[in-house]
User: Fold these one by one.
Assistant:
Number 1:
Amino acid sequence: MPNSASSSQDEPPRRERRKEARPGELLAAALDVFVEKGYAATRVDEVAARAGVSKGTLFLYFPSKEELFKAVVRENITGMYAGWSAEIDEFTADSAEMLVYAMNAWWQQVGRSKASGICKLMMAEACNFPELADFYEQEVEAPGTALLARIVQRGVDRGEFRPVDVAYAAYALKAPMMFLMLHPEGDSEGFDPERFLRIQIDLLLNGLAVLPGVASGAAAS
């Protein structure tokens, strides 16, 4: 028979284990409620109840609804950028393959996940919360555009892509991602998001590619 005293010494008390897990539980609950109800309609006490804690406990970790929302964004989207940036630095294949990989990684990790609801929320409510809109631009939109621009610039520098306006090319690459997040499920019978993304990538790459026998010209102004 195991010694109950030694077991209790080896295993942290339940209260301590719960306290350590609580921020993650709160962020998961907050993501659910924000996505279901939007930012304006979300109440902090509802998030706390969903996580199984008091509102006072939630405020120990996140002093306001705005800070809670920012933490949700950082946990579910912003936190991925460092890893994606490192992958770009280490990528050895050509830039077309890198672009395919990057857009598919976005779809798998954000676009098809619950985190995509954050992007929809911001599109719907940004005009009513300009400070949150600025935060979202700095933490999500600008870094995402910069990563895509890095891939396009890499392709141009290596002679794999024709010269283009890199900044606007990055915006063009974001467009199909935005469409997928806004496309209502079941709106078109048989619509396959992953097939759509493959077709978009093919069209975009053929537009960027240096065609045999055609001299590469200057970037469009």
Number 2:
Amino acid sequence: MKGAILYELGQVPQYGTIDEPKIQQEGEHVLRVTAAAVKNLDKARTSGKHYASYTDLPAVVGNDGVGYLEDGTRVYGQGITGMIAEKALISGNYTPIPKDLDDVTAAALPNAILGSAMPLIIRARLQEGQNVLFNGATGVTGQVGVQIAKHYGAKEIIVTGRNTAILEQLKHFGATQTITLTEDNEALQEQIKSIHQITPIDVVIDYLWGKPFQAILNAFKGNDIHHLASTVKIVTAGDMAGKEIQLTSAILRSTDIQLMGSGFGSLTQEELIVFNKVILPEMFLLAAQGKLHIQTEVHPLEAIESVWNKPIDRGTRLVIKI
């Protein structure tokens, strides 16, 4: 079969021929793949620097995708074998795709939903009427997160980012307040503090970490012994602006912050089943109804080598059609 094949760690996958995957145990299914997204995780695993980098080469790359089971059912699944190929093995924990949802959108959405719905719903347990801040909302995941927060009834949706055009677009997706990130973190801190005083922020979903997150964290710090704390659930789901912050004891003692992370290591197997069987089907249905949007750039499998490292517009997901 044809696929995107990695021959050496640190190299770009190449279009070529490799043996078809074969079922090894009960519960596995062969998927005839029609589309698969290229994500940061996919690229990290090919680099050799990720903890889950490929060890048995050559190998087909790609972690998830959509296609047809043996009985003709169209599904999204996470690969036991690499997914950017004509065929792949998946487990039984797959998600059927609505007939009105196209393959490209179905392939592009799941990773963004995993990075937004799981922090919002599973980790922060968002409630209708709460106020949410997305720090670094102009990426693919942040844009999807804003739409999901609106769907689940968030009242105020505050977003930060550097791309002013995408920030403006996020208003159409449900954002009620936008903050343009600059190098002036003190100004960011004061903006967040002012917003928090008027409309207390209940949930923060952070994709940046580093200095922008430090400024937001400092904004929640109480100033005197008469300060009445309001609970703020903070979920980190990325570190695009830096891998470290300075967390002082005073911040935790002066406000009611619940700080947690969201990622594969923090989600239980049961929660991942809920993702595939409950959350993802609901989001697929929203997308099929035109109520959940994601921007994509599509290329054929044959072009994998030339598009793997191609610069893609911010907030757009690369999808390979097969």
Number 3:
Amino acid sequence: MHSISYERANDVDHAIELARQPGTKFIGGGTNLLDLYKSGIEKPVRLVDVSRLALSAIEELPDGGLRIGATVSNTAAANHPLVRQRYRILSEAILNGATTQLRNMATVGGNLLQRTRCYYFTDPTFAHCNKRNPGSGCDALEGYNRIHAILGASPECIATNPSDMSVALVALDAIVHLQGPGGARQVPVAEFHRLPEDRPQDDTVIQPGELIVAVELPPAKFTRSSHYIKVRDRASYAFALVSVAAAVEMDGDLVRDARIVLGGVAHKPWRAVDAENTLRGKPLTDEVLAKVAAAAVAGAHAYKDNAFKVELAQRAVVRALQTAAGGNV
């Protein structure tokens, strides 16, 4: 291991100033960064501790929305009364994401930035990983690819995003607040993560030196009629093979509006816009749900070990929508 310098930031501006040194990484809970450092995948030369910045509040906004600071722990976010009352789908997703011990350490900002759990990325003994070594190739294409992407992948990378929280945030139209050398900016969470294309090493649109300072939730639209379902290899905490964040707004027996977002199937949370459009104005009948489920995975490309994900995703979409609608089905 190489030597690393450590500094604790006094405030956001100080953190951004410290991050001007190349090779600097911000650290909050460290639940992902430290694992990657121990494996030799991340090689920071300086760690800037942002865990004690004034970014740990959850505040109600004047319009009825919610602002969650970047250093709020996953546990605090999931259990906050306003999150549980107004954004149940977010609480469900976070609670499905990890053990209590990890949730107590992991932060909202860190969760957004966690990197893929692709075997070929996390194990540096595999030489060919375009995400870890750009231009080296992708061992997952011909290797064991059971957990890998069926949507939005490219010949450069078929890894998936591991975040449960991010899937729910896309369904809620959340906004990521960033601050960096160029000032403050806001990015819809649906646009925060990237598809791999020809630059799989870039997971997000975050710029060098930028710090996540908060996540903003708009006024709750799907207060009760929402559900997060996660399908995994074991009932104890594991990463999703497929997950679905589903929310519906009903007008009698018809769906007025809907959100359908899949996890575990792409390089980013996958919003199934065509499936949502198929559902709007329709009743939640078996026939309609079958069409919605098919639309959710339209264009899927399976590999030798993960073809099962196509049907699994369709079944999960139907189950999530039925559960979200509850007595309206």
